[in-house]
Structure formats: structure tokens, C-alpha cells
Amino acid sequence: MRYGYYPGCSLTGTGIEYGLSADAVIRHLNMDMKEIRDWNCCGASSAHNHDPLLSIALPARNLALAEQQGFREVAVPCAACYQRIKAAEVAARDPLKRREMEEVIEEELSGAIVARSLLEIMVHDIDDSALAAQIRRPLQGLKVACYYGCLLVKPRAIAMDEAENPMTMDHLMERLGATPVEWGYKTECCGGSLTLTRPDTGVQMTAEVLKYAKLAGADCVVTPCPLCTSNLDMRQGTAEKKLGRSLGLPIYYFTELMGFAFGLPMKTLGLDRHFVEATGLLQSLPVPASG
């Protein structure tokens, strides 16, 4: 399968570890995934609060560009970008909305192109044997809390998995050798959008997610969302003060754990860039016997 790749804005900034590890894993797996030329911001977190038409027209331009460049599917790493681009895809199926978007972006849309999360692609488009052949350092003994956040699984019309108990990332972690823990906060909001407007509420929500991951026995949290990762990683110290206890939970992107399991260098994956120290836990995992 050939994919158009939409990196989005966060993967060179607050989500740089995601960008580095996604690029490394895509190259390692030799996937036919090419960045969409001249892509633009999808408008996440702002456009839909300003203008409903703009909120789907901005991401629709990326779909139009992908079509022009010969792609039938668009791979989207960022959960927020996925939600906005998927919403544009769904809207483009309606002829009236499609014409409105075409007028705004001055491009044609067929309504046939499909947006998919990078997580979904890694799980459903790479078979077990192909993935297993790449694993050099399985994640045996690592207990992970798979945290999907709000944006990949809600609302139903654009969800990539079940809203209450998604399992896509759990299955990927199992294939890498890790043990996903059972917990009830997989899709609870981490409060990332409230950290500037209502910081006390935001920190409380962050603390709750981290607390229940720890209570479930997790050694770490794994996510597909730059906003969630930034919030749970960068604000973990504040959350610890709120809870009155130490947590010490590394927050990983699923691509970082994939790359580590493939034997790729930690620095290449961005594992040295975290706020909560993230390399020691992985280095402590048992090294498989050679031969």
C-alpha cells in the first residue's frame, strides 16, 4: 500500500519525539509512505472554535493535495490532526458540503480518499510475521497503560476504534512483547486543552489519569497523541504535587516502543528528550539471549 503522509505541526515541536520515532520506524519497515507536498495546518484546537466551515476546509485541502499527488489513503500520526482530517473526509461524502469546501480551498475533492491514523496502519496493515521478524529486543516484562485519549475514538462517525474500550494499541504492545494493563482511563480526557484556561482543573484531570495508570500496575503510559504526551510528561511533576505522591511514569509514543523493540538507537527515537526520564526503564528490560 502507498500512503500519503501528513506529519502535522506538532511533530517538529512539542511532539518531536513522535516525529523522530515515526520517521525511524517507517524507514525501518520500508513502508511506501511519502509526505504530502505543500500540506497545511489542519486547524486543530482553533479553527472549529472560530468557523465550522473553515474547520473542515483546512484539513480538506490536505486531502485534495493528496489526491492530486496520487494517494488513496493518508496516514496521520497526530490524534488531533487525525480527528480533523477524518472529519473533513466524512464531510466530503456529502455533495453540498464538498462543494462548499471546494469553494473555500479552490481545489477539487472526489470524496473518495481515506484518512487513517498511523497507529491503525501499523496494527492492521503489517501482519504478525512481518512485525515479528523486525523485533530484536522484545518488551518482555514491561507493563504498559495504553492511553488513547479523546480524539481517536470520539465521535463515533470518525472513530478508529471502540469509544469505551479500544484495543488497537493494546494488540500492538502485545505483539512487541509488552503486557497491557487493564484500566478504566483509556479514553478519559487528560485535561490538555484546559492547562491554560483552567489550569487547576487540567492538572486534576492529568493527575487522575496518571494515578489510575499507576494503580493498575503500569510501569509506563503509551500514547498516540502529542497533546496527551506533552501534558502527561511535562506536567507530571505538578500532578505529583497535586496527588502528594511520586509517580515516575515514563510517557512513550507507541512508535518509540516499536523502534526500541526493533533495536533502533534511543537517540534516533527521541527517547532522550522526555521530561520524565524514559531511557532507564527500557534499558532495565531483560536482553534476549543471542543465538
UniProtKB/TrEMBL annotation:
Superkingdom of the source species: Bacteria
Gene Ontology MF term list: oxidoreductase activity
Cysteine-rich domain mapped to chain residues: 4-85, 144-233
Gene3D superfamilies for this protein: 1.20.1050.140, 3.40.50.11810
InterPro entries: Cys_rich_dom, HdrB/HdrD_reductase
Signal peptide annotation: none
Keywords assigned by UniProt, alphabetized: Oxidoreductase
PANTHER family assigned to the protein according to its UniProt record, in alphabetical order: COB--COM HETERODISULFIDE REDUCTASE SUBUNIT B 1
Protein name per Swiss-Prot or TrEMBL: Heterodisulfide reductase subunit B
